[in-house]
Design brief:
Spore Coat Polysaccharide Biosynthesis Protein SpsA, Chain A, 50% helix, 8 strands
Amino acid sequence: MITLFWILICVVVYTYIIYPGIVFILSEIILFFRNSNFNQSELFEPEVTLFVTAYNEIDFVDAKVQNSFSLDYPKEKLHFVWITDGSDDGTYEALKKYKELSVYHETERKGKINALNRGMQFVKTPIVIFSDANTLLNKESIRAIVQEFKNEKNGCVTGRKRIIPLNKDNAVNSGEGIYWQYESLLKKAESNVNSAIGAVGELFAIRTELFEAVESDTILDDFIISLQIAQKGYQIKFASNAIASERASISIHEELKRKIRIAYGGFQTLFRLKKLLNPFYHLVLTLQYISHKVLRWAVVPFSYPMLFLINIYLVIVSPHTVLYNLLFVAQSIFYLFVFAGYILQSKRISFKLIFVPYYLFIMNLSVIAGFIRFLKKSQSVNWERSERE
C-alpha cells in the first residue's frame, strides 16, 4: 500500500509539475542559444486553403465568413473550402451566397471525420488550415501559421485556443480558460524543445501532401492527423500569434459531455498511435507523448480516488505518522474546494482560481467516464455540439 501510494503521488506530481517544469527550462535554454537560420523578414506567401467542416452552424456562418474575409493575407492566395454534410438548418444555403467560397454538401450525415476525408480532395494548395465554424481567428493568424512552414522540417502547425473571458466568470469559463492558458504555454515550450504534442482542433495547419485519410470512426481527428505527421519525422510547431477564440460551454453538464467524448477519443488514439509508444522510433517524441498525454489519460485520473482511499487507510493504521496526516489534510482541502466549486458553479464571481480544483476534478472524472464508454464502444462518431455562452 505504501509503495503504491508513493508511486501514484510521483506520477501525479511528474505529470503536472515535473514534466512541464523540465520542458519550460529546456525551452528557455534552447531559445537563449538558438540562432535562427531563417530570414524572418523574407516574404513567404504560399497559397493556402482555409478548410471548415460545419454541421448545422447557421448561427455562426455569417460571423465566421466575415472573419475569414478579414484575415491579413493576399486575397488571391487564400482559398476557402466548406463541407456541410448532413446540415439541414440552412447552413449550406446560407454559405452559397458567398461566391468566394467553395461549398460542398451531401445530405447524409456521416460525422466530421468523414466530411474531412471527403473534403480534402478539393484542396489544391500546398498548405491547408483547419478551423471550426464557431471560432473566430485573429487578423494575423494565417501569416503566423504560414511563417512556421518556412522550415521544411515542420509538417504541422497548431494555433492557440483562447476562451473569451467574461467580466465575472462561472466554473466552466474560468476553468477552461485557465486550462487553455496552461496548455498553450506547455505546447509552446514543447514546440521549442522538439515538437508540440497534438494540435488544437479549432486552428491547425498541415502540408497538404502529408495528409492521410483517417479511419472513419476517429473521434480526435486533429490529434490523430497531427501525430501521424510527427510519426513520419516532421515536427509540430506552435504558433502563439495564431489565435482561435470561442466561448466556453454554457454549463458544466455541457462541458462534461464534451470532455467525455474527448476522453473516449484519447483512449482510441492510444491503440492507433502505437508507434509513438516505441522509443526506438523517436525517443524524445515518445517521452513527450507519454508524459503529456498517456499519463494524463491512462494513469492520473484513476490515481486521484486511489490516493484518497489509500491515504485514509494509512492514517487509520499509522495515526501518529505526521506526513500521512498532512497529506490527508491537503487532499481533504482540495476536495473541499471541489465541493465549493460545485456549489458555486453557476455563479459569476471575480475570484476565478476557486474553480480550478473543481474543473480539474471534472476533467479527470470525464476521463474515467470516457474509459467506461470506450470499453462499451458506445460513442457515436457524430459530433454533438455543446451549447456555449
